[in-house]
Amino acid sequence: MPLLYRYLISLCAFGAVSSATDLTGNWVVSQDMNDGTFRRTYFNLRQEGTAITGSIRVTQFFYKIASSTGGPDGFTIVGSMMDGKNERKVTYEGKLVGDELHIGTRRGATLNEMVAQRAPEGEGAMPARIEPPQLHKVADNSLARTPPMGWNSWNKFAGRVTGDDVRGMADAMASNGMKAAGYVYINIDDTWEGERDAQGNITSNKKFPDMKALADYVHSKGLKLGIYSSPGPNTCAGYEGTYAHEEQDARTWAAWGIDYLKYDWCGARNLYTDDEMQAVYQKMGDALRAAGRPIVFSLCQYGRADVWKWGPDVGGNLWRTTGDIRDAWDSMTRIGFEQSDLAPYARPGHWNDPDMLEIGNGGMNENEYRTHMSLWSILAAPLLAGNDLRSVPPAILEILTFREVIAVRQDRDGKQGSRVSKNGDLEVWSRPLAGGAVAVGLFNRSAAEASISVQWADVGVRKPSHVRDLWLHKDLAVAPDGAGFLATVPPHGVVMLRAE
Ligand code: GLA
C-alpha cells in the first residue's frame, strides 16, 4: 500500500480514536488460557456526568459498581456484591486510551493493567435467574459407605492440570501401594471445562482432549474418575459452570464414565442466597439420579448454611465444612481442630469434608503431616491426596498408606471422632470404633516436645486389655489397674492409639 494511503488511514483511525471520550459501553478483556478457552472479564460502564455506574463480571463474581471517581483520563471504580452475609468489594483503576480501556487492579505500587475492547451490549450479562425447585428428599445413592479415598488435582496443580497428568496419577496410584491401601478416586478439579457446543453440551478443553478415553484409561487401572463443576454460570476459576444445564451435564458425565462429582458453589452466589443452597444442590442430586450412573456427590460450599443438616437430603455423600485448606500448619490445624462439634452429622454414606490433604506438598514436616493424617482419620474425613503421586518420597508414601491409621478411618461404624480434652496446645481426641474399640489421638500443637496423658475412662474404654501405638506398630503394656497412659509427643506431632 502506498505510504500516503497508510498515513491517511492511520490519521482517520487516530481521528476516530481520539473522539472516544465516553466510557459508556460494554468492555471485555479476553485472556487466552492456552487451553482453547478465554477468560473474559466484562466492564459494563455508564458514564453519567462525573459518576460511573454499571457492573463488573470477573471469573465467578458479578459486582455492581457502588462508587467511582474520575473520568476517561483516569478513573477508579469500586464494585460491590453480597456473598452470603458478607459484602465483597473489588477496585479497578482505568483510563481510556484511544478506543481501548486500560484497566486493572492494584497490588501495592503495581497496577496489573489489562486491555479491554468494546463488546456488543448484552454480551457477558448474567443469565436470568431460574427459580430453585421445591424441597424434597433425594433418595440415598448407597455410595461412600466409608469416606471416599483418592486424589484431587487442585492442591498441587490448580489450573495447570492436564489429561496426561491425570493418567500419570492413575498409573502411580495403581502401582505405588495407594490403590492397595484403599485409594480409588482420581478427581479432576476446576479448569477442565471447554465451551458448550451448539446443542449446549459441555465439552472439555484442550488440556483434556478426550474425557471418555481418559475415563476408560482410569477404569482400566481399577480406579474411578471424578470431575468438578458449579451450579453457577461460572466455576471458581471462571470456567463454564453447569447453571441451567444440570440434567444435560449429568448425562454427559455419565456417558463419559464419571464416578464422582465435586459441585462447587462459586458463580451460583450471584443468583442465589445461602438459604436457597439446599434447593440448588437438590437439583443436581436429582439430575445425577436421573442420569442413571452411580456418581458420588460431593458438595463444596465452604460449610455455609449448616450444610451438615441437609447434605444427605439432597443426595450428598460429603460436604465441605470449611474454606480452602493451604499447605501450612496454621491452615491445616485451624481447619482440623475445629471439626469436633460436627461429629454427630457424619455417618456411612454422608461425611463431613474438612477439605483435601496437603500431605507431601512441602509446606509441613513429617510430624505435621502425620498429625494431618491422624486427625483426618479420627474425623472420618475423606482422604483425597493433593500431591504429585508420580514422585512421592518414601516417607510421604508411608504416611499416606499407613494401614493401621487408614483402618481407623475406614471403620465400618462410620462414627466421627471428637475432642475429649484440651489443655492449652495439648489435645486428646477419640473416635469410637466397631466392636467397642476406640482410637485415641494425643495431639501436641505446640512447638516443643510435650507429655500428654489420657485416662481410659475419659475415652470410653475402662481397663482396656489391648492398647496399640499405631504409628509405631507396637503393642503397649497395659496397667492392670486401668490407669491411663502418658505419652511423649514430638512438637506439632501426634501419638495415635487403638484401645479395646
Ligand atoms: C474453590 C474450592 C477449591 C477448588 C477451587 C477451584 O476454591 O473450594 O477446593 O475446587 O475452587 O477453582
Description of the structure:
The protein is an alpha+beta fold. It folds into three domains: 11-118, Lipocalin, CATH 2.40.128; 149-409, TIM Barrel (Alpha-Beta Barrel), CATH 3.20.20; 418-499, Golgi alpha-mannosidase II (Immunoglobulin-like, Sandwich), CATH 2.60.40.1180. The chain is 22% helix and 32% strand. An eight-stranded antiparallel β-barrel has the order 1-2-3-4-5-6-7-8. A hairpin with a 2-residue loop joins strand 2 and strand 3. It is globular. Alpha-D-galactopyranose binds at residues 154, 189-190, 235-237, 264, 300, 324.
Quick rundown:
With 500 residues, the protein is an alpha+beta fold. The chain has twelve helices and 26 strands. It has three domains: 11-118, Lipocalin, CATH 2.40.128; 149-409, TIM Barrel (Alpha-Beta Barrel); 418-499, Immunoglobulin-like.
